[in-house]
Amino acid sequence: MTTQPNTASLTDSISAHDLVLRQRRFFRTGQTKSVAYRIEALKRLRQGIEEYQPRILAALRADLNKSEAEGYSSEIRLVLGELDYTLANLEQWAAPRVVPTSEQIAGGASAIHPEPYGVALVIAPWNYPFQLAFSPLVGAISAGNCAVLKPSELTPSVSKLSADLIRACFPDEYVAVMEGEVETSTELLREKFDYIFFTGSTPVGKVVMRAAAEHLTPTTLELGGKSPAIVHKDANLQRAAQSLVRGKFLNAGQTCVAPDYLLVHADVQEELLREIKLEIEDKYGADVTQNPDFPHIVNDRNFDRLSRFLNDGEALLGGRTVREQRLIEPTLLQGIDWNSPVMQDEIFGPILPVMTYTELDPVLEQIVDRPKPLALYLFTRDQEVQDLVLNTVSFGGGCVNETLLHMSSHELPFGGVGASGMGSYHGRQSFETFSHHKSMLVRSV
Ligand code: NAD
Protein backbone atom coordinates (compact mmCIF):
# COMPACT_ATOMS: atom_id res chain seq x y z
CA MET A 1 0.00 0.00 0.00
CA THR A 2 1.26 3.50 -0.83
CA THR A 3 -0.25 6.29 1.20
CA GLN A 4 -1.59 8.99 -1.14
CA PRO A 5 -2.84 12.43 -0.10
CA ASN A 6 -6.61 12.46 -0.01
CA THR A 7 -7.37 15.56 -2.07
CA ALA A 8 -11.03 15.44 -1.10
CA SER A 9 -10.06 16.49 2.43
CA LEU A 10 -12.32 19.04 4.09
CA THR A 11 -10.14 20.28 6.93
CA ASP A 12 -8.85 23.27 4.96
CA SER A 13 -12.33 24.79 4.85
CA ILE A 14 -14.38 23.07 7.54
CA SER A 15 -15.12 24.78 10.86
CA ALA A 16 -14.01 23.22 14.14
CA HIS A 17 -17.67 22.76 15.01
CA ASP A 18 -18.48 20.83 11.85
CA LEU A 19 -15.33 18.74 12.09
CA VAL A 20 -16.15 17.63 15.62
CA LEU A 21 -19.72 16.84 14.53
CA ARG A 22 -18.46 14.71 11.64
CA GLN A 23 -16.06 12.86 13.95
CA ARG A 24 -18.74 12.32 16.56
CA ARG A 25 -21.05 10.85 13.94
CA PHE A 26 -18.28 8.55 12.76
CA PHE A 27 -17.44 7.52 16.32
CA ARG A 28 -21.05 6.53 16.85
CA THR A 29 -20.89 4.04 14.00
CA GLY A 30 -18.79 2.00 16.46
CA GLN A 31 -16.09 1.18 13.92
CA THR A 32 -13.23 2.49 16.05
CA LYS A 33 -14.28 0.24 18.94
CA SER A 34 -13.00 -2.76 17.03
CA VAL A 35 -9.45 -3.54 18.11
CA ALA A 36 -8.74 -4.91 14.63
CA TYR A 37 -9.73 -1.51 13.17
CA ARG A 38 -7.35 0.30 15.52
CA ILE A 39 -4.49 -2.08 14.72
CA GLU A 40 -5.06 -1.52 11.01
CA ALA A 41 -5.05 2.26 11.60
CA LEU A 42 -1.80 2.13 13.58
CA LYS A 43 -0.16 0.04 10.86
CA ARG A 44 -1.31 2.53 8.25
CA LEU A 45 0.14 5.37 10.30
CA ARG A 46 3.42 3.50 10.67
CA GLN A 47 3.66 2.95 6.96
CA GLY A 48 2.77 6.59 6.27
CA ILE A 49 5.53 7.79 8.60
CA GLU A 50 8.06 5.54 6.88
CA GLU A 51 7.05 6.84 3.47
CA TYR A 52 7.10 10.46 4.63
CA GLN A 53 10.37 10.12 6.54
CA PRO A 54 12.48 12.21 4.09
CA ARG A 55 9.83 14.96 4.19
CA ILE A 56 9.63 14.84 7.98
CA LEU A 57 13.41 15.24 8.26
CA ALA A 58 13.42 18.08 5.71
CA ALA A 59 10.63 19.87 7.60
CA LEU A 60 12.52 19.55 10.91
CA ARG A 61 15.60 20.99 9.21
CA ALA A 62 13.58 23.87 7.71
CA ASP A 63 11.83 24.80 10.96
CA LEU A 64 14.54 24.21 13.57
CA ASN A 65 17.74 23.30 11.67
CA LYS A 66 17.60 19.82 13.24
CA SER A 67 20.14 17.50 11.63
CA GLU A 68 18.89 14.24 10.13
CA ALA A 69 20.49 12.29 12.98
CA GLU A 70 18.87 14.43 15.68
CA GLY A 71 15.53 14.58 13.84
CA TYR A 72 15.42 10.82 13.49
CA SER A 73 16.60 9.90 16.99
CA SER A 74 14.62 12.47 18.97
CA GLU A 75 11.41 12.53 16.92
CA ILE A 76 10.72 9.79 14.34
CA ARG A 77 12.37 6.92 16.22
CA LEU A 78 10.39 7.63 19.38
CA VAL A 79 7.07 7.66 17.52
CA LEU A 80 7.90 4.43 15.65
CA GLY A 81 8.92 2.90 18.99
CA GLU A 82 5.55 3.86 20.51
CA LEU A 83 3.76 2.41 17.48
CA ASP A 84 5.62 -0.90 17.61
CA TYR A 85 5.18 -1.31 21.34
CA THR A 86 1.48 -0.50 21.07
CA LEU A 87 0.94 -2.85 18.14
CA ALA A 88 2.62 -5.66 20.08
CA ASN A 89 0.44 -5.16 23.18
CA LEU A 90 -2.85 -3.57 22.18
CA GLU A 91 -5.01 -6.68 22.15
CA GLN A 92 -3.99 -7.47 25.70
CA TRP A 93 -4.45 -3.87 26.93
CA ALA A 94 -7.88 -3.55 25.33
CA ALA A 95 -9.28 -6.77 26.83
CA PRO A 96 -11.61 -6.46 29.83
CA ARG A 97 -9.72 -7.03 33.09
CA VAL A 98 -11.46 -9.44 35.42
CA VAL A 99 -11.08 -8.42 39.06
CA PRO A 100 -12.18 -10.14 42.29
CA THR A 101 -15.69 -9.40 43.58
CA SER A 102 -16.21 -8.50 47.24
CA GLU A 103 -17.46 -11.40 49.35
CA GLN A 104 -20.67 -9.61 50.34
CA ILE A 105 -21.81 -9.51 46.68
CA ALA A 106 -22.61 -13.17 46.29
CA GLY A 107 -22.98 -14.45 42.75
CA GLY A 108 -21.31 -11.42 41.20
CA ALA A 109 -18.52 -11.17 38.64
CA SER A 110 -16.52 -7.96 38.21
CA ALA A 111 -14.52 -6.63 35.28
CA ILE A 112 -13.03 -3.34 34.10
CA HIS A 113 -13.75 -2.56 30.45
CA PRO A 114 -11.49 0.03 28.80
CA GLU A 115 -13.53 2.04 26.29
CA PRO A 116 -12.66 5.03 24.10
CA TYR A 117 -13.78 8.47 25.28
CA GLY A 118 -15.00 9.49 21.82
CA VAL A 119 -13.51 12.50 20.02
CA ALA A 120 -10.11 13.61 21.32
CA LEU A 121 -8.23 16.87 20.77
CA VAL A 122 -4.41 16.84 20.71
CA ILE A 123 -2.69 20.25 20.85
CA ALA A 124 1.05 20.12 20.16
CA PRO A 125 3.99 22.50 20.76
CA TRP A 126 6.83 23.43 18.39
CA ASN A 127 9.93 22.10 20.10
CA TYR A 128 9.56 18.43 19.06
CA PRO A 129 6.79 19.22 16.60
CA PHE A 130 6.57 15.75 15.11
CA GLN A 131 7.08 13.57 18.16
CA LEU A 132 4.84 15.57 20.51
CA ALA A 133 1.99 15.55 18.00
CA PHE A 134 2.20 11.93 16.86
CA SER A 135 3.05 10.13 20.13
CA PRO A 136 -0.17 11.27 21.82
CA LEU A 137 -2.02 10.47 18.61
CA VAL A 138 -0.83 6.85 18.85
CA GLY A 139 -2.47 6.74 22.29
CA ALA A 140 -5.71 8.30 21.04
CA ILE A 141 -6.00 5.85 18.14
CA SER A 142 -4.98 2.81 20.17
CA ALA A 143 -7.75 3.51 22.68
CA GLY A 144 -10.31 3.72 19.86
CA ASN A 145 -10.93 7.46 19.68
CA CYS A 146 -11.43 9.77 16.74
CA ALA A 147 -8.94 12.63 16.94
CA VAL A 148 -8.26 16.18 15.86
CA LEU A 149 -4.62 17.24 15.93
CA LYS A 150 -3.64 20.92 16.20
CA PRO A 151 0.10 21.33 15.45
CA SER A 152 2.09 24.42 16.40
CA GLU A 153 2.05 27.35 13.99
CA LEU A 154 5.65 28.17 14.97
CA THR A 155 6.94 25.16 13.01
CA PRO A 156 4.98 25.65 9.77
CA SER A 157 6.80 23.02 7.68
CA VAL A 158 6.09 20.27 10.20
CA SER A 159 2.54 21.53 10.62
CA LYS A 160 1.89 21.30 6.86
CA LEU A 161 3.58 17.93 6.61
CA SER A 162 1.53 16.57 9.54
CA ALA A 163 -1.66 17.62 7.76
CA ASP A 164 -0.54 15.92 4.53
CA LEU A 165 0.54 12.75 6.30
CA ILE A 166 -2.67 12.38 8.28
CA ARG A 167 -4.75 13.15 5.19
CA ALA A 168 -2.88 10.42 3.32
CA CYS A 169 -3.62 7.90 6.06
CA PHE A 170 -7.11 8.66 7.37
CA PRO A 171 -10.46 10.19 6.42
CA ASP A 172 -11.23 13.46 8.21
CA GLU A 173 -14.14 11.98 10.12
CA TYR A 174 -11.68 9.61 11.86
CA VAL A 175 -8.40 11.55 12.31
CA ALA A 176 -7.82 15.10 11.07
CA VAL A 177 -5.29 17.90 11.41
CA MET A 178 -6.46 21.47 11.89
CA GLU A 179 -3.59 23.85 11.22
CA GLY A 180 -3.55 27.40 12.49
CA GLU A 181 -2.55 29.93 15.11
CA VAL A 182 -3.94 30.66 18.54
CA GLU A 183 -7.35 31.51 17.03
CA THR A 184 -7.63 27.96 15.68
CA SER A 185 -6.85 26.52 19.12
CA THR A 186 -9.38 28.87 20.66
CA GLU A 187 -12.01 27.85 18.12
CA LEU A 188 -11.32 24.18 18.78
CA LEU A 189 -11.38 24.65 22.54
CA ARG A 190 -14.90 26.10 22.34
CA GLU A 191 -16.11 22.73 21.09
CA LYS A 192 -17.08 19.87 23.33
CA PHE A 193 -14.38 17.21 23.04
CA ASP A 194 -14.41 13.99 25.05
CA TYR A 195 -10.71 14.24 25.88
CA ILE A 196 -8.09 16.98 25.54
CA PHE A 197 -4.37 16.25 25.47
CA PHE A 198 -2.30 19.44 25.59
CA THR A 199 1.48 19.82 25.45
CA GLY A 200 2.85 23.33 25.87
CA SER A 201 3.56 26.10 28.31
CA THR A 202 2.10 26.42 31.81
CA PRO A 203 0.23 29.70 31.08
CA VAL A 204 -1.49 28.21 28.01
CA GLY A 205 -2.16 25.04 30.01
CA LYS A 206 -4.34 27.18 32.29
CA VAL A 207 -6.24 28.53 29.27
CA VAL A 208 -6.82 24.96 28.07
CA MET A 209 -7.99 23.79 31.48
CA ARG A 210 -10.43 26.68 31.80
CA ALA A 211 -11.90 25.84 28.38
CA ALA A 212 -12.08 22.13 29.29
CA ALA A 213 -13.89 22.97 32.54
CA GLU A 214 -16.72 24.53 30.52
CA HIS A 215 -17.58 21.06 29.12
CA LEU A 216 -16.13 19.02 32.01
CA THR A 217 -13.73 17.45 29.54
CA PRO A 218 -11.00 15.28 31.10
CA THR A 219 -7.60 16.68 30.23
CA THR A 220 -3.94 15.79 30.25
CA LEU A 221 -1.58 18.75 30.54
CA GLU A 222 2.06 18.17 29.61
CA LEU A 223 3.68 21.45 30.65
CA GLY A 224 7.12 22.88 31.32
CA GLY A 225 9.11 24.33 34.22
CA LYS A 226 12.58 24.71 35.62
CA SER A 227 14.14 21.28 35.97
CA PRO A 228 17.21 21.22 38.25
CA ALA A 229 20.35 19.13 37.80
CA ILE A 230 22.30 18.46 41.00
CA VAL A 231 25.89 17.22 40.88
CA HIS A 232 27.03 16.02 44.29
CA LYS A 233 30.65 15.87 45.43
CA ASP A 234 30.99 12.11 44.92
CA ALA A 235 29.61 12.08 41.35
CA ASN A 236 31.42 10.58 38.38
CA LEU A 237 32.18 13.99 36.86
CA GLN A 238 33.08 12.88 33.37
CA ARG A 239 29.83 10.91 33.06
CA ALA A 240 27.86 13.77 34.59
CA ALA A 241 29.37 16.24 32.11
CA GLN A 242 28.56 14.01 29.12
CA SER A 243 25.02 13.51 30.25
CA LEU A 244 24.42 17.17 31.12
CA VAL A 245 25.75 18.40 27.77
CA ARG A 246 23.60 15.90 25.87
CA GLY A 247 20.51 16.75 27.94
CA LYS A 248 20.93 20.51 27.95
CA PHE A 249 22.02 21.21 24.38
CA LEU A 250 19.91 18.71 22.44
CA ASN A 251 17.65 20.83 20.21
CA ALA A 252 19.61 23.88 21.45
CA GLY A 253 18.06 23.51 24.90
CA GLN A 254 14.50 23.73 23.56
CA THR A 255 13.52 20.54 25.36
CA CYS A 256 10.85 20.44 28.06
CA VAL A 257 12.86 17.96 30.14
CA ALA A 258 16.26 19.64 29.62
CA PRO A 259 18.19 20.39 32.80
CA ASP A 260 17.25 24.06 33.21
CA TYR A 261 19.96 24.99 35.73
CA LEU A 262 22.90 23.31 37.43
CA LEU A 263 23.58 23.03 41.16
CA VAL A 264 27.07 21.70 41.80
CA HIS A 265 28.86 20.96 45.06
CA ALA A 266 31.58 23.57 45.58
CA ASP A 267 34.29 20.89 46.00
CA VAL A 268 33.84 19.62 42.44
CA GLN A 269 32.68 22.73 40.61
CA GLU A 270 35.97 23.53 38.90
CA GLU A 271 36.53 20.03 37.64
CA LEU A 272 32.94 19.55 36.48
CA LEU A 273 32.95 22.81 34.52
CA ARG A 274 36.24 21.82 32.90
CA GLU A 275 34.71 18.48 31.86
CA ILE A 276 31.59 20.22 30.52
CA LYS A 277 33.73 22.58 28.40
CA LEU A 278 35.67 19.64 26.97
CA GLU A 279 32.47 17.78 26.24
CA ILE A 280 30.87 20.75 24.45
CA GLU A 281 33.96 21.20 22.28
CA ASP A 282 34.09 17.50 21.55
CA LYS A 283 30.41 17.27 20.62
CA TYR A 284 29.81 20.56 18.81
CA GLY A 285 33.30 21.83 17.88
CA ALA A 286 35.32 24.69 19.36
CA ASP A 287 33.24 27.29 17.46
CA VAL A 288 29.59 26.30 17.47
CA THR A 289 28.68 29.25 15.24
CA GLN A 290 30.42 27.31 12.45
CA ASN A 291 28.56 24.07 13.17
CA PRO A 292 25.92 23.59 10.42
CA ASP A 293 23.96 21.08 12.51
CA PHE A 294 23.43 22.98 15.76
CA PRO A 295 19.67 23.67 16.01
CA HIS A 296 18.41 27.25 15.80
CA ILE A 297 16.11 29.12 18.16
CA VAL A 298 12.55 28.81 16.89
CA ASN A 299 11.75 32.51 16.34
CA ASP A 300 13.00 36.07 16.91
CA ARG A 301 10.91 36.55 20.05
CA ASN A 302 12.56 33.58 21.77
CA PHE A 303 15.98 34.57 20.40
CA ASP A 304 15.63 38.05 21.93
CA ARG A 305 14.29 36.66 25.21
CA LEU A 306 17.26 34.28 25.49
CA SER A 307 19.80 36.90 24.41
CA ARG A 308 18.75 39.09 27.33
CA PHE A 309 19.73 36.31 29.76
CA LEU A 310 23.29 36.57 28.46
CA ASN A 311 23.59 39.86 30.39
CA ASP A 312 22.98 37.91 33.61
CA GLY A 313 26.12 36.87 35.48
CA GLU A 314 29.17 36.14 33.37
CA ALA A 315 29.58 33.69 30.51
CA LEU A 316 32.14 31.12 31.57
CA LEU A 317 31.81 29.53 28.15
CA GLY A 318 29.96 30.54 24.98
CA GLY A 319 27.73 33.61 25.05
CA ARG A 320 27.98 34.52 21.37
CA THR A 321 24.92 34.82 19.14
CA VAL A 322 24.26 35.02 15.38
CA ARG A 323 20.99 36.85 14.90
CA GLU A 324 20.45 36.05 11.19
CA GLN A 325 20.44 32.34 11.99
CA ARG A 326 18.88 32.74 15.45
CA LEU A 327 21.85 30.78 16.77
CA ILE A 328 23.03 30.93 20.39
CA GLU A 329 26.20 29.14 21.47
CA PRO A 330 26.04 26.61 24.30
CA THR A 331 26.62 28.93 27.24
CA LEU A 332 27.54 28.39 30.88
CA LEU A 333 26.59 31.32 33.14
CA GLN A 334 28.30 31.94 36.47
CA GLY A 335 27.60 34.54 39.13
CA ILE A 336 23.92 33.60 39.24
CA ASP A 337 21.73 33.42 42.34
CA TRP A 338 18.12 32.32 42.93
CA ASN A 339 16.91 35.90 42.33
CA SER A 340 18.63 36.41 38.95
CA PRO A 341 16.25 36.99 36.01
CA VAL A 342 17.45 33.76 34.36
CA MET A 343 16.25 31.84 37.44
CA GLN A 344 12.66 33.13 37.32
CA ASP A 345 11.16 31.22 34.36
CA GLU A 346 11.92 28.17 32.24
CA ILE A 347 14.92 29.07 30.02
CA PHE A 348 14.19 26.81 27.02
CA GLY A 349 17.45 27.56 25.24
CA PRO A 350 21.18 26.63 25.27
CA ILE A 351 22.01 28.61 28.41
CA LEU A 352 22.97 26.79 31.60
CA PRO A 353 23.16 28.87 34.81
CA VAL A 354 25.51 27.34 37.36
CA MET A 355 25.19 27.76 41.13
CA THR A 356 27.29 26.07 43.80
CA TYR A 357 26.34 24.64 47.19
CA THR A 358 28.03 23.13 50.19
CA GLU A 359 24.95 21.84 52.06
CA LEU A 360 22.20 20.00 50.21
CA ASP A 361 19.30 20.75 52.60
CA PRO A 362 19.01 24.51 51.88
CA VAL A 363 19.26 23.79 48.14
CA LEU A 364 16.40 21.31 48.34
CA GLU A 365 14.37 23.86 50.31
CA GLN A 366 14.84 26.39 47.51
CA ILE A 367 13.65 23.86 44.94
CA VAL A 368 10.64 22.86 47.04
CA ASP A 369 9.73 26.56 47.48
CA ARG A 370 9.29 26.86 43.71
CA PRO A 371 6.73 25.33 41.31
CA LYS A 372 7.12 21.55 41.02
CA PRO A 373 9.58 20.78 38.19
CA LEU A 374 8.87 18.51 35.24
CA ALA A 375 12.19 16.68 35.77
CA LEU A 376 15.07 16.45 38.20
CA TYR A 377 18.51 14.98 37.55
CA LEU A 378 20.83 13.92 40.35
CA PHE A 379 24.44 12.82 39.98
CA THR A 380 25.74 10.90 42.96
CA ARG A 381 26.74 7.39 43.95
CA ASP A 382 25.55 7.95 47.51
CA GLN A 383 22.31 6.08 48.21
CA GLU A 384 21.47 8.30 51.19
CA VAL A 385 21.68 11.40 49.01
CA GLN A 386 19.51 9.74 46.37
CA ASP A 387 16.91 8.84 49.01
CA LEU A 388 17.00 12.32 50.52
CA VAL A 389 16.38 14.08 47.20
CA LEU A 390 13.73 11.61 46.05
CA ASN A 391 11.84 11.87 49.34
CA THR A 392 12.10 15.65 49.65
CA VAL A 393 11.31 17.02 46.20
CA SER A 394 8.15 16.43 44.16
CA PHE A 395 8.75 16.46 40.39
CA GLY A 396 7.31 14.78 37.29
CA GLY A 397 10.08 12.22 36.79
CA GLY A 398 13.80 12.09 36.33
CA CYS A 399 17.06 10.20 36.42
CA VAL A 400 19.96 9.46 38.72
CA ASN A 401 23.35 9.70 36.96
CA GLU A 402 21.64 10.41 33.62
CA THR A 403 19.48 13.01 31.90
CA LEU A 404 16.36 12.75 29.67
CA LEU A 405 16.31 8.96 29.32
CA HIS A 406 13.38 8.36 31.68
CA MET A 407 11.14 9.80 28.96
CA SER A 408 12.15 7.23 26.37
CA SER A 409 11.19 4.13 28.39
CA HIS A 410 7.85 2.54 27.43
CA GLU A 411 7.53 1.27 30.98
CA LEU A 412 7.76 4.69 32.65
CA PRO A 413 4.67 6.91 32.44
CA PHE A 414 5.82 10.39 31.44
CA GLY A 415 4.24 13.56 32.79
CA GLY A 416 4.49 16.48 35.19
CA VAL A 417 3.01 17.35 38.56
CA GLY A 418 1.62 20.63 39.85
CA ALA A 419 2.68 23.50 37.58
CA SER A 420 4.55 21.08 35.29
CA GLY A 421 1.38 19.21 34.35
CA MET A 422 -1.15 16.54 35.18
CA GLY A 423 -1.65 13.07 33.78
CA SER A 424 0.91 11.05 31.88
CA TYR A 425 1.47 8.95 28.76
CA HIS A 426 3.93 6.72 26.84
CA GLY A 427 3.66 2.97 26.39
CA ARG A 428 0.63 1.43 28.05
CA GLN A 429 -0.05 4.66 29.90
CA SER A 430 -0.98 6.36 26.60
CA PHE A 431 -3.66 3.73 26.02
CA GLU A 432 -4.91 4.12 29.60
CA THR A 433 -4.92 7.92 29.35
CA PHE A 434 -7.17 7.93 26.30
CA SER A 435 -9.50 5.22 27.72
CA HIS A 436 -12.38 5.45 30.13
CA HIS A 437 -12.37 2.50 32.53
CA LYS A 438 -15.91 1.24 32.78
CA SER A 439 -16.37 -0.85 35.93
CA MET A 440 -19.02 -3.55 35.58
CA LEU A 441 -20.56 -5.88 38.12
CA VAL A 442 -22.59 -8.70 36.59
CA ARG A 443 -24.77 -10.64 39.01
CA SER A 444 -26.10 -14.04 38.11
CA VAL A 445 -29.88 -14.34 38.43
P1 NAD B 1 2.57 27.14 23.90
O1 NAD B 1 1.83 26.86 25.15
O2 NAD B 1 2.85 28.55 23.53
O3 NAD B 1 1.82 26.51 22.62
C1 NAD B 1 1.41 25.16 22.56
C2 NAD B 1 0.22 25.02 21.64
O4 NAD B 1 -0.86 25.79 22.18
C3 NAD B 1 0.44 25.52 20.21
O5 NAD B 1 -0.19 24.63 19.32
C4 NAD B 1 -0.24 26.88 20.19
O6 NAD B 1 -0.80 27.21 18.95
C5 NAD B 1 -1.35 26.71 21.22
N1 NAD B 1 -1.66 27.96 21.91
C6 NAD B 1 -0.80 28.99 22.17
N2 NAD B 1 -1.43 29.97 22.85
C7 NAD B 1 -2.71 29.56 22.99
C8 NAD B 1 -3.88 30.12 23.62
N3 NAD B 1 -3.83 31.32 24.20
N4 NAD B 1 -5.01 29.43 23.60
C9 NAD B 1 -5.09 28.21 23.02
N5 NAD B 1 -4.03 27.62 22.41
C10 NAD B 1 -2.86 28.27 22.41
O7 NAD B 1 3.90 26.29 24.03
P2 NAD B 1 5.12 26.20 23.03
O8 NAD B 1 5.83 27.52 23.05
O9 NAD B 1 4.68 25.66 21.73
O10 NAD B 1 6.02 25.09 23.72
C11 NAD B 1 6.95 25.37 24.70
C12 NAD B 1 6.44 25.00 26.07
O11 NAD B 1 5.93 23.68 26.06
C13 NAD B 1 7.53 25.01 27.12
O12 NAD B 1 7.02 25.54 28.31
C14 NAD B 1 7.85 23.54 27.31
O13 NAD B 1 8.40 23.20 28.55
C15 NAD B 1 6.50 22.93 27.13
N6 NAD B 1 6.63 21.55 26.71
C16 NAD B 1 6.25 20.57 27.56
C17 NAD B 1 6.42 19.24 27.18
C18 NAD B 1 6.02 18.11 28.07
O14 NAD B 1 6.01 16.98 27.58
N7 NAD B 1 5.72 18.32 29.33
C19 NAD B 1 6.96 18.94 25.94
C20 NAD B 1 7.33 19.99 25.10
C21 NAD B 1 7.14 21.30 25.48
CATH fold-level name of the largest domain = Aldehyde Dehydrogenase, Chain A, domain 1
Shape: globular
Distance between the termini: 51 Å
Please mark out the parts with pLDDT under 50 across 5 or more consecutive residues, or reply none.
1-9
Q: How many domain modules? A: 2
Q: Catalogue the ligands.
A: nicotinamide-adenine-dinucleotide
Q: CATH homologous superfamily of the largest domain? A: Aldehyde Dehydrogenase, Chain A, domain 1
Q: How large is the radius of gyration?
A: 23 Å
Structure description:
With 445 residues, the chain is α/β, with parallel strands linked by helices. It folds into 2 domains: 10-223 and 420-443, Aldehyde Dehydrogenase, Chain A, domain 1, CATH 3.40.605; 228-415, Aldehyde Dehydrogenase, Chain A, domain 2 (3-Layer(aba) Sandwich). Helix content is 41%, strand content 18%. The chain has 13 helices and 18 strands. Strands 10-13-14-9-8-15-16 form a 7-stranded mixed β-sheet. Strands 5-4-3-6-7-17 form a 6-stranded mixed β-sheet, sandwiched between helices. It has a 3-stranded antiparallel β-sheet with strand order 1-2-18. β1 and β2 form a beta hairpin. It is globular, with a radius of gyration of 23 Å. The chain binds nicotinamide-adenine-dinucleotide. Nicotinamide-adenine-dinucleotide is lined by residues 123-127, 132, 150, 152-153, 182, 185-186, 189, 199-201, 204, 207, 222-224, 256, 346, 348, 374, 416, 421.
